[in-house]
Design a protein that fits this description.
With 291 residues, the protein is of the alpha/beta class. It folds into two domains: 86 residues, Rossmann fold (3-Layer(aba) Sandwich), CATH 3.40.50; 132 residues, Rossmann fold. Helices cover 38% and strands 16% of the residues. It contains nine helices and eleven strands. β9 and β10 form a beta hairpin. The protein is globular and about 55 Å long. It binds nicotinamide-adenine-dinucleotide. The site of nicotinamide-adenine-dinucleotide has 25 residues, from α9. The site of nicotinamide-adenine-dinucleotide (NAD) has 25 residues, from α9.
């Protein structure tokens, strides 16, 4: 058996098509969705991520403004930039690319963003809404992308055993809340670096989400036959046969495709969905201004 591929690239483009229409409707009403992306420092991966986000904005008709700051930017300067963007009525979404430079306090920066412009969905007010069972606000993009993949594939999780490996603020924890919410109704287990016998937890999981950041740590024979496997991990490994000398792999060994019922590829699974959910949050933030 070979798993059905859950193609996030194709689904992401489909989501973006619906956004193009919503953006057009907003523009007729005089609202021009506008995302501000703050990039502090010279992290190579962040440069690529920001470029991809700006390209997605172009595809959706969203205006984007990029603010580049040096590696040695002070916390005060970053906070001032956020305050200025909060006060700028033409900006609907603010994203400060993670990681911010050493010596800056990323949590304080997140907390400084106006929650109605927090298109990353990491502000305590937005994460707190999730705990209260309210999932109609600005959701963290990667967990929202995972939920969209599951919804689109019409995978019924009522009563299913869902295992989320990873408990981060940006992926594992909010995703666990979304999976447990009323209407989705999965029975959720959260595993992490201190969990005993992850192997057996995996074998019992109807849905397995790996958000760990360890290349191919989840082996094929840990997967329950027919299970849905969502691989959030993005890991660069050495590969002498590839032109660049390296390639991207997930947290799940790709041979799990032979056992799973559904599986996301890496790359091309959760990654593109994260970006289209960012676009979706930006449009939503602009729409919220009308109400
Ligand atoms: P993180 O480092 O904040 O969290 C990793 C989690 O994995 C922790 O909760 C930790 O307890 C757990 N963990 C570590 N080692 C483990 C082990 N051996 N067994 C079980 N659990 C273990 O990372 P993050 O920000 O949540 O990201 C996780 C992965 O997802 C990374 O590879 C990251 O690049 C990727 N990611 C992808 C996207 C995307 O759009 N596809 C978005 C965000 C993060």
């Amino acid at each position: 058996m070979s798993a059905t591929l859950l193609d996030g690239k194709v689904l992401g483009l489909r989501v973006e098509e619906t956004l193009v229409e919503r953006v057009a409707a907003l523009k007729i009403k005089g609202v021009h969705p506008h995302l501000a992306v703050v990039l502090a420092g010279d992290d190579a991966a962040s440069q690529v991520y920001v470029r991809n986000k700006q390209r997605a904005c172009e595809r959706c008709g969203i205006q984007s403004t990029r603010i580049d700051l040096p590696q040695d930017v002070s916390q005060e300067k970053l906070m001032q930039v956020v305050a200025d963007l909060n006060g700028d009525d033409s900006i609907h979404g603010i994203l400060v690319q993670s990681p911010t430079p050493d010596g800056t306090d990323e949590i304080a920066i997140t907390e400084a963003i106006n929650p109605t412009k927090d298109v990353d969905g990491f502000h305590p007010a937005n994460l707190g809404r999730l705990v209260m069972g309210q999932s109609d606000g600005l959701l963290p993009c990667t967990p929202a992308g995972v939920m969209k993949i599951i919804e689109d594939a019409q995978i019924d999780l009522k009563g299913a055993n869902a295992l989320v490996i990873g408990r981060s603020r940006i992926v594992g924890m909010p995703l666990a809340l979304l999976l447990a919410q009323k209407g989705i109704d999965a029975t959720v287990t959260i595993a992490h670096s201190r969990t005993n016998d992850i192997e057996n937890l995996c074998r019992n999981a109807d849905l397995l989400v790996a958000a760990i950041g360890r290349p191919e740590i989840i082996e094929a024979d840990w997967i329950k036959p027919g299970a849905t496997v969502i691989d959030v991990g993005i890991n660069r490994i050495e590969d002498k046969s590839s032109k660049s000398g390296s390639r991207l792999v997930g947290d799940v060994d790709s041979s799990a495709m032979e056992v799973a019922g559904y599986m996301t590829p890496v790359p091309g699974g959760v990654g593109p969905m994260t970006i289209s959910m960012l676009m979706s949050n930006t449009v939503r933030a602009a729409e919220m201004k009308l109400h």
